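Sharing a chain and its predicted structure for anyone who wants a worked example. Both blocks are below, sequence first, C-alpha cells second.
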Amino acid sequence: MKSKIINSFFWGNSVALSWLWGLGLFFSVQITYLFGLTGLLGFALLNSIGLFLFGYGTQKIANRDKGQESLERFYKKWYKPFRLSLYLYQLLAITLTVFATVKYLFIPLLTSYWPGWDDGGSILQIFSLLLVVSLVISASCLLGEEFSIKSIKYWHLLIGAVLLVIIVSLLSYLQPKEIYNYQAWVKSETQKPIFIGYMVAIFVGFFVGPWLDLQQWQRAIQMRKEETNICTGYFFGSVIFFFLLIFHGLMASFVFNSNWFNPNMASIGLGGIKYGHEQIVNYMIYFRSTLPEWVPLSYYLFIVFAVLTTLDSGYVSTRWFVKEVSKSSNSPVLSIIPKGIADSPIPTYILAGLITIFSVLANFELEYFMVFYATFFVAYASLGIARCFVPNSQHSLPQVKLFSIGALSLVVFAGGYFMQMAVLMIIGSILPILYVFWLVLNTDLLRVVKEKVEEVIDAASEIPVLKNLSKATHTAINGKTLEVSTGSHFEGKWFVHSFMATYADTNSVGNVYFGVYALWVGKTRELFFNYVLPDFNLKDTTYLILTRSFEHKYITETREFERISVKIRASEYNRKIATLEHQVFDSAGNLLGKGKQQLIFVSPKDYRLLDIPPEVIKAFMPYM
C-alpha cells in the first residue's frame, strides 16, 4: 500500500509538470498583473480542480471493468471520433508552449544581451528566431526520444526536486513582503465585470480541457496498468500544480509591486491591451548587476525545466497517438505517407515551430492561443465527457455542427476580449456547453420516443387479427411457400448475397455444417471483389490478395431450404492490412453468425508484402 502511494506521488509530480505548459506557466504572471493575487488564486484553484476531476473521472471509468487494461480498452473506443480534435489540441498546446518560451524568455534575453538585435532587420530576426525555435524543439525531441511513458516519471521526479530547490531559494532570497499588502491581493479590476469574464473562461476551459489532453490520458492509462490509483495520483498532481502556479504568481506580484515596475513598461499587443508576461525576466535583466548571479540563472532554469517537462511529455504522448492512428486509420492520405514519417511526432513539432515564428513576427500574445481552449475545443471536450458518463450520448459526432458552434463561440469570445466586454466573453465560453447539453438531451428524447413506439408495436402485436396475420406469415416462411429471392445487391455500405441452403450444406444431424459458413462468406467476398474491382486480372495484376486471418462467431443454427443472406463490407484498413466484416442472416432476419477477416497484399513475383494498392483503397472507400 505504501509503495502505491509513493508511485501515486511520482505520477502526480509528472502530471503537474506535464500540465505546466505555457498556458499555466506564463498566464499566471498575466493574471496576477491584471487582477492581483485574487485573480491568481482563482486561476490556480480552478485549474487544479479541473485537473483533479479528470483523474477522478478516469478512475471511475477504469473501475467499470476489471483488469489493468480496462481504461486503455475504453480509450481506444472513445477516442476515434475525436482524433482530429485531440491532435489539434496537442498541436496547439505544443505551439503555445514553444511560442511563450521564445516570446517571453528568449526574446527579452536576446534584446538585452544582443544590442541592436531588434533593429537588425527582418532577415536577422527571422534567422535568430529560427535558431532559438530549433533549439527548443531539438531539446524537446531529444528528451522525448530518451524516455517512454513508463520511465518519464523518474526523469520528472529529478526535475521536480531541482525546481523545489529553485523555488525555496528564490522565495528565501527575495522575501517578497509586498505580496502581503492589500494592493497585491485586490486590484480595482477585480471589481469590474471583465474579471468575471476571465474567471468564467478559465472555469470552462480548464474544467473540460484535460479530457482532450493526450498527455493526461496517457498518464491515466499507465497508472491503471501499474495498478496505481488514478484519483490519488491526480490529487497529488493538482496540489503540486497549484503551488507551482502560486509560486510563479508570487514572483510576478513581487515584481509588479516593486518600485521598479511602471505600468507603462507593459507591452502592448493587438487591440491596445497591455501584457506583462515577460516582466519577471525583464526585472532579472535590469537588476542582473546587483543581484547574485544565481538568482536570475535560477529563475531562467525554472522556466526552461518547466517548459521541457511539458514538451518532452508532449513528444511521448504525440508519438503514442500518431502510431495508434497510423495503425488503425482508414485515411488514404496516411496510407501514402512513409511509415517513419507517419509514426513520428517530429513533423508535429516542426509545424509548431513554424507557427511560432509566424506568431512572434506577427506580434501575437499568449491569450490569442488561449481563446481556443475557452471556446473552440469546449464543445468537443464537453461531448467527450458526456460520452464517458451519459449512455444516451453515444451517437455519431456531428462534426460539422461541432466545428460551426466552436467557430461561432471563438468569434464571439474574441470580440468580447478585444473590446473588453465581459458579457461576450461569457457567452462565447458557455455557448458550446449549452449546445452539447441540448445535443445530449435531444438524443435522450429520441430514445424515449423510440422506446414508446416499440411499446406500442409490441402491444399492437397482441391484437388477435394482427397476431393471426403474424402467425400466418411466419408459417408461410417455415412452410417454404414464400418465394425465396436470391442474388446480390447492396444495402447501404453492405454487399449482400442471398441464396438457399440445401442438403449439401448440412451434416448428419440435419443442421448446416459449421465449415460451410466460411465457404458462404468466401463466396460472397469474391462476388464483392468482382463488383468493386471489375478490372482485376490475374494475368497482369501487380498484387495478389491473401487472407491473413479469419474469425467467425456462431450464434444461431439454420437448416436446409432456408434463405441465407451474407452481408460483407470493408470495415477498416491501415498501411498493410484491410479488414472485412461479415454477418449471416436467415429469412426471418435472425443473426446466424458474424465475424471478420484480414487481408494482406503481396507481389505476384516474389510474394513480398506490399502496402495496400491505391486502386484497392479507392474501391473499398465507398463501402467503409
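Comments welcome. The first helix runs from residue 2 to 19.
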